[in-house]
TrEMBL record:
<dbReference type="GO" id="GO:0045271">
    <property type="term" value="C:respiratory chain complex I"/>
</dbReference>
<dbReference type="GO" id="GO:0006120">
    <property type="term" value="P:mitochondrial electron transport, NADH to ubiquinone"/>
</dbReference>
<feature type="transmembrane region" description="Helical">
    <location>
        <begin position="82"/>
        <end position="102"/>
    </location>
</feature>
<keyword id="KW-1133">Transmembrane helix</keyword>
<keyword id="KW-0812">Transmembrane</keyword>
<dbReference type="InterPro" id="IPR039205">
    <property type="entry name" value="NDUFA11"/>
</dbReference>
<keyword id="KW-0496">Mitochondrion</keyword>
<keyword id="KW-0472">Membrane</keyword>
<keyword id="KW-0999">Mitochondrion inner membrane</keyword>
<dbReference type="GO" id="GO:0005743">
    <property type="term" value="C:mitochondrial inner membrane"/>
</dbReference>
<protein>
    <recommendedName>
        <fullName>NADH-ubiquinone oxidoreductase 213 kDa subunit</fullName>
    </recommendedName>
</protein>
């Protein structure tokens, strides 16, 4: 569906760039094959990808390669050339397989734990890479939500010395 829309946009651009004025329907009459090519390529890709994943029982890179080959083969059908069909199919298949194998736009994720969801992955990363509180206090200092052991008592003393305000002793429920 999305590729049909992209094909329609490209057909509209091609229609606008033509020298003769064919009107608004020229998108479909003179450039309609582009829309059909993109729609058929997208449908062939998705159908082949899903069918191979279903028949093989596994969703991996080979499904993308098969789907990419069929989408590229649609370009060969458009050009009415078997060598072009095989070449374009092979190139599309290789590109789609490489794109999926490398993780696409999200990056390579083969090292992820399969049993963990996103929140558990974040919690695991936070536990693995958490720095000790004393190291953070030494680097940033106290305050702004960073409180070391005994912070409440030191704050009480500082307020008493600087402003003469006694905020009371630190209670058991304080954050220190």
């Amino acid at each position: 569906m999305q590729l049909s829309l992209i094909g329609a946009i490209l057909a509209g651009v091609r229609n606008a760039a033509q020298k003769q004025n064919v009107g608004a329907r020229g998108i479909f009459t003179s450039s309609g094959r582009i829309i059909a090519l993109y729609g058929a390529g997208g449908a062939a890709y998705q159908f082949t990808r899903d069918a191979s994943a279903n028949l093989r029982g596994i969703d991996d890179t080979y499904n993308e390669a098969l789907g990419g080959f069929m989408a590229g083969a649609m370009a060969g059908v458009y050009r009415r050339s078997i060598p072009y069909m095989v070449t374009a199919g092979s190139l599309f298949g290789i590109v789609m397989a490489a794109f999926t194998y490398s993780g696409g736009f999200t990056g390579y994720k083969r090292d992820r734990d399969e049993g963990l969801d996103e929140a558990a992955m974040k919690q695991k990363a936070m536990e693995e890479y958490r720095r000790p509180i004393q190291e953070i206090i030494d680097e940033l200092g106290e305050g702004r939500g960073i409180m070391g052991p005994g912070y409440a008592e030191r704050r009480r003393q500082r307020l008493l010395e600087n402003y003469g305000i006694d905020v009371g002793p630190a209670t058991q429920g304080s954050r220190a």
